[in-house]
Amino acid sequence: MPMRRVDTDVSRFRRIVRGQIRKNLRRYVSQGELKTLQGGRVVSVPLPEIHLPQFTFGDRGGSGVGQGEGEAGEAVGGEPGEESGEHELEAEVTLEELAQILGEELELPRIEPRGRQSVVTDVRRYRDIRRVGPRSLRHFKRTFRNALQRQIAAGTYDPACPRIVPRPDDERFRSFDVTPVPESSAAVLYMMDVSGSMGAEQKEIVRNTAFWLDTWIRSQYRNVATRYVVHDAAAREVDRHNFFHLKEAGGTKISSAYRLVDRMIDDDYPPDQWNVYCFQFSDGDNWSGGDTAECMRLLDEDLLPKSNQFAYGQVKSAYGSGQFKHDLDQRFDDDDRLVTCDIPDRDGILDCIREFLRRGR
Q1: C-alpha to C-alpha distance for 332 and 326, rounded to whole angstroms
Q2: CA torsion sign, 115 to 119 to 124 to 128?
Q3: Residues sharing a CB contact under 8 Å with residue 184, sequence separation 6 or more, in sequence order
Q4: Strand partners of residue 8
Q5: How far apart are alpha carbons 17 and 303 in whole angstroms?
Q6: What's the number of CA atoms in the CB half-sphere (13 Å) around residue 297?
Q7: In the chain, at which residue ranges do the beta strands (DSSP E only) sit?
Q8: Which domains does the chain have, with CATH numbers?
Q9: Which tens digits make up the pLDDT trace of 135-182?
Q10: Which end of the chain is more exposed for a tag (fewer CB within 10 A), N or C?
């Protein structure tokens, strides 16, 4: 079937949109300007720099449409404005397209799942032909060929008047077979310090970072479970909204979050069936050196062996010391299961995402 002109135009427009998204990716990541639509499957992207084609008429000094009294640019029936208007176009892209653009721009490798596949799904594929079936699945070519062969064999086929009339026994129908297909599953466990030193700006940075991490991981796995843990001196599980908006006034004890996440993995996401990703965000303060030592033990003995990757993002705040990242880097400098990064401000989000995902674990 030949491609229609409109299909060519749509394809060209989508290439332009992809190019604009890549060009402005850092802005979208840092500012969080994207709006999710259709149950979170589609994203609306503002594209202010796409200029639509328009006709421009030259000035030949003659009469015609647009000619008459008045100067060029003068408004009809009112005073002209002092500044030109600003036009913004919103384009809709799927999360899959957005993940592909992110991967291309950051040159991210595809994630290699570890362990055995956790879910086996029966997939129906129409690869078989049968003599019976519903009319909606009748295979026209096979039916036509059978009728033609029968008429030729019976001597009733007339090349001068090639009329083919299928009989019920000529009909063939498409049919499916059921194939078990293994599917990888991922569990994404977010942890965040919500003590008094983590303000609204720090939480917004974490929210933007988590959106793009989710977008990439969901493009790599068929089944993704996401859980959220907050902590100050104690840890508890919350929903997504409270994760990004809750604020406490207590101190910080990171080991409480590590213990809770470790129990969640043991209870719900055994590593031989799930690909586990832990993302922790904090401003780097911890209750005491003794608790930091306990965190290192929990990582070494429990969390790192059970995780595909453990990632720690340190968000800069006016009150955070930043010490915890330094302690992690010293203890696990040669362990590729753990990755850390600093997020000094919103412009640092994209670099942190690249650091978290570049190993393809």
Answers
A1: 10
A2: positive
A3: 113, 117, 118, 221, 222, 223, 275
A4: none
A5: 41
A6: 9
A7: 35-37, 42-47, 89-94, 119-130, 173-183, 185-193, 223-231, 235-238, 275-282, 309-315, 338-343
A8: 1-50+89-107 (no CATH), 119-180 (no CATH), 185-357 (3.40.50.410)
A9: 888 898 899 899 999 988 988 888 888 888 899 899 999 887 766 555
A10: N
Give the bridge partners for 120, in sequence order.
182
197, burial (CB in 10 Å: exposed 0-12, middle 13-18, buried 19+): buried
DSSP states of 230-298? EESSSEEEE-HHHHHH----S---HHHHHHHHHHHHHHH--TTT-EEEEEEEE-S--S-HHHHHHHHHH
Q: Residue 274 contacts by C-beta under 8 Å, 6 or more apart in sequence?
A: 115, 118, 185, 186, 187, 225
Instruction: Supply the pTM of this predicted model.
Output: 0.69
DSSP conformation class of 337: T
The overall average pLDDT reported for the chain is 82
Contact 203, 244 (CB under 8 A): yes
Length of the chain: 361
Whose tokens are 């006016």? That residue is: 318
| Cα–Cα distance list, 102 to 12, 133, 332, 340 (Å) | 20, 45, 28, 20
